[in-house]
């Protein structure tokens, strides 16, 4: 018998390999049935997929006799290869969306920021403060991740001992400029793409002031392209429950039950970072003459709803109501900035979560988390934090952008273990996202003298 055909081409040499492939297919059939009959929505299927993925991974280990080195068991490697067809295939489709999404969303955001001087101040201060708070959130995530050594105990690929050549700050900045935008697009160089998209957006705005009819077809094209990409994202993310099963099963089969410790560590650091960032919000309010205690009292209903509902957009009406009726903020300002904050500059998602994921993956694969890494991470977080929210499961797109920019996109599958508890983490993420938008609304409103201090106090 030609063993090469089975070992290297089919990657199928044992009955157990076939059994676990059949099990995965059976679970997919169950998920498909639940979706077809509308028994569970996407969130429900994600939670079920998490349980099934963990169970399947543990079953693989039990069947193999709980080996200390699972990857040393031949048939487990075969199962991982076949499961990788689903898991890695999904990640490839997700990465497919990153470059066109960043390019189109940045152009679109800049083009849509129109208005006179008053709206210009509102937009400038609102966007600026959302970016600043997101940067602070990212820094907090980086500090705690490094302080507690997130990912350092589970290195999967080790770096070399070679001394890397130091690149000057001038060369680094020049490297971020899109000398060849098509090359940047082809290579997935996120920062140059953002710079190029920003210039395109600004050029469109200049032409609009001269003769809007000239660029109207292109603006319509951008809007249509954005809608198409969002639909593509929904299609791909609709397959997330299937990918989660394969991803989690592969992760547990590869690394054993130590992944439970990793999950608990990540969750603890994340919650701590959220608590500290909420403290930053309170300090920011106090510095601007707004009582932190009154803030909690006024917007408590919105924060509780955000925590329990896990949706920034769904919390938007309550956020506006609490800001206007309880905190005395001008309704126009409240509506505008909370809407802006529900679609970008999210402290929890783009800030803390993205930073922690990036640092964790870097530590796991032996990539140095040095000053260059941190600066690049902060640049990407600040520049790409607008325009990609509002998609169910969009957190995967949010974190895929910094990972791609940092050259860690190929290791995206290592985040699977964290997604096992994402519904829980999402409660804290949404809480701090909404708090960031509420805080920004009040601080910007105060700077524009649009807060009725009698009502607030």
Written description of the protein model:
By secondary structure, the chain is mainly α. It has a single domain (86-456), classed as Sodium:dicarboxylate symporter (Proton glutamate symport protein, Orthogonal Bundle). The protein contains 19 helices and no strands. The protein has helices at residues 3-10, 15-36, 42-63, 74-112, 117-147, 169-175, 181-187, 190-238, 240-255, 259-287, 292-309, 312-326, 331-341, 347-364, 371-383, 395-405, 416-419, 422-447, 453-456. The protein is globular and about 75 Å long. The chain starts with a helix and ends with a helix.
Output the keywords:
Proton glutamate symport protein; 457 residues
Query: What is the CA-atom radius of gyration, in angstroms?
Result: 24 Å
Q: Strand fraction band?
A: under 5%
- Characterize the biggest β-sheet: none
CATH topology: Proton glutamate symport protein
Instruction: Enumerate how many helices there are, as a single number.
Output: 19
- Mean pLDDT comes to 83
Gist?
With 457 residues, this protein is mainly alpha-helical.
Helices, strands, pairings?
Layout: H1 3-10, H2 15-36, H3 42-63, H4 74-112, H5 117-147, H6 169-175, H7 181-187, H8 190-238, H9 240-255, H10 259-287, H11 292-309, H12 312-326, H13 331-341, H14 347-364, H15 371-383, H16 395-405, H17 416-419, H18 422-447, H19 453-456
Helix pairs in contact: 2-3, 2-4, 2-9, 3-9, 4-8, 4-9, 4-16, 5-10, 5-13, 5-14, 5-15, 5-18, 10-14, 10-18, 11-12, 11-18, 12-13, 12-18, 13-18, 14-15, 14-16, 14-18
């Amino acid at each position: 018998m030609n063993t090469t055909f089975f070992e290297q081409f089919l990657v199928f040499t044992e009955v157990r390999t076939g059994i676990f492939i059949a099990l995965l297919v059976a679970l997919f059939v169950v998920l498909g049935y639940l979706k077809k009959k509308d028994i569970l929505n996407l969130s429900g299927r994600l939670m079920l997929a998490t349980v099934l993925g963990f169970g399947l991974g543990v079953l693989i280990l039990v069947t193999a006799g709980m080996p200390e080195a699972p990857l040393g068991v031949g048939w487990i490697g075969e199962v991982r290869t076949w499961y990788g067809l689903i898991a890695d295939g999904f990640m490839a489709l997700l990465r497919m969306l990153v470059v066109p999404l960043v390019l189109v969303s940045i152009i679109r955001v800049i083009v849509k920021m129109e208005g006179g001087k008053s709206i210009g101040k509102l937009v400038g201060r609102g966007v600026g403060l959302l970016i600043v708070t997101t940067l602070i959130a990212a820094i907090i995530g980086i500090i705690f991740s490094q302080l507690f050594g997130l990912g350092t105990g589970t290195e999967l690929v080790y770096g070399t001992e070679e001394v890397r050549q130091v690149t000057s700050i001038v060369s680094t900045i020049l490297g971020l400029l899109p000398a060849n935008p098509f090359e940047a697009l082809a290579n997935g160089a996120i920062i140059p793409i953002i710079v190029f998209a920003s210039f395109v957006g600004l050029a469109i705005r200049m032409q609009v002031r001269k003769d809007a009819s000239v660029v109207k077809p292109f603006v319509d094209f951008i809007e249509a392209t954005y809608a198409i990409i969002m639909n593509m994202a929904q299609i791909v993310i609709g397959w997330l429950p299937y990918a989660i099963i394969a991803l989690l099963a592969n992760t547990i089969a590869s690394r054993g039950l130590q992944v439970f410790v990793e999950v608990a560590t990540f969750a603890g650091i994340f919650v701590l970072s959220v608590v500290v960032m909420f403290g930053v919000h309170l300090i920011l309010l106090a510095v601007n003459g707004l009582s932190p205690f009154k803030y909690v009292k006024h917007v408590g209903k919105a924060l509780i709803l955000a925590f329990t509902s896990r949706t920034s957009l769904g919390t938007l009406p309550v956020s506006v109501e609490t800001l206007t009726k309880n905190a005395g903020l001008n309704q126009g300002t409240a509506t505008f900035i909370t809407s802006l904050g529900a679609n970008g500059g999210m402290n929890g998602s783009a800030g803390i979560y993205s930073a922690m994921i990036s640092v964790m993956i870097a530590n796991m694969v032996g990539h140095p988390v040095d000053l260059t890494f941190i600066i690049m991470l902060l640049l990407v977080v600040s520049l790409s934090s607008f325009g990609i929210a509002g998609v169910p499961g969009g957190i995967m797109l949010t974190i895929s952008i910094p990972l791609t920019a940092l050259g860690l996109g190929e290791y995206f599958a290592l985040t699977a273990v964290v997604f096992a508890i994402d519904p829980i983490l999402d409660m804290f993420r949404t809480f701090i996202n909404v708090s960031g938008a509420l805080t920004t609304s009040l601080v910007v409103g105060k700077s524009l003298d649009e807060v009725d201090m009698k009502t607030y106090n």
